[in-house]
Amino acid sequence: MTKEKFTLLVLNCEETLYRISVSMLKNERDAEDATQTAILKAFEKISTLKDEKYFKTWLVRILINVCNKQLKEKSKYTCNDIDLITLKSCDNNFEVRVAVENLPLKIRQVVVLYYIEQFSTKEISSMLKIPKGTVLSRLSKGRELLKLELK
After folding, report:
1. Same domain, yes or no: 73 and 143
2. 42 CB contacts (<8 Å, ≥6 apart)?
3. CATH number for 101
4. d(CA 66, CA 84)
5. Residue 139 domain boundaries
6. Number of compact structural domains in the chain
7. Which of 86, 109, 114, 126 has the fewest Cβ atoms surrounding its Cβ within 10 A?
8. Which of 83, 100, 124 is a domain's end point?
9. Alpha carbon 17 to chain centroid distance?
């Protein structure tokens, strides 16, 4: 893959990457760092991508790994500097943003990937390396929690 092709593919999914990282890290600066780190790692490992049609899924998986690593490192410290997440589908609905932000991380990941980024359950299963049934149960639990929170 050429640098130009890589750049074009990254630009096509840059907003998605940013929204996913913000939803996981809850901090804009950390999200920007994670997104850039994931793009750099992807560029360095582009030879491991077997099929270009899975580029976005492959890159999101790298991003999730980067975010998880940052969360693990961050858990060693306490931080009160948490920004509200910005989600494409609920930009004008503060209550929904807060409700999604308050979901447990594993459920929030699946909810954001499915409802906001429009990935299929099969793609999410592949990205998170969990069974499709687990994706479906987390979506169900997320819906239940959001209903309770938004009542």
Report:
1. no
2. 6, 10, 58, 59, 62
3. 1.10.10.10
4. 20
5. 87-151
6. 2
7. 86
8. 83
9. 6
- Give the H/E segment covering residue 40: helix 28-44
Q: What is the 3-state secondary structure (H, E, C) of 101-138?
A: HCCCHHHHHHHHHHHHCCCCHHHHHHHHCCCHHHHHHH
Query: Do 69 and 100 fall into the same domain?
Result: no
Task: Identify the domain boundary among 54, 83, 112.
Answer: 83
The answer on pLDDT for 151 being more than 60 is yes
pLDDT digits (tens, 9 = 90+) for 101-115: 889 989 998 998 888
Looking at residue 52, the DSSP 8-state letter turns out to be G
Say if residue 72 is in the same domain as residue 33: yes
Q: Which residues are within 8 A (CB) of 2 and not within 5 positions of it... i.e. 6 or more apart?
A: none
Q: Indicate if 103 and 74 belong to the same structural domain.
A: no
Q: Please give the mean pLDDT across all residues of the chain.
A: 82
Residue 67 sits in the same domain as residue 92: no
Long-range contacts of 133-137 (CB under 8 A, 24+ apart): 135/110
By C-alpha distance, which of 101, 88, 99, 91 is closest to 27?
A: 101
Q: Could you give phi then psi for residue 80, rounded to 5 degrees?
A: -100, 0
- SS3 category, 14: helix
Residue whose tokens read 């969990």: 130
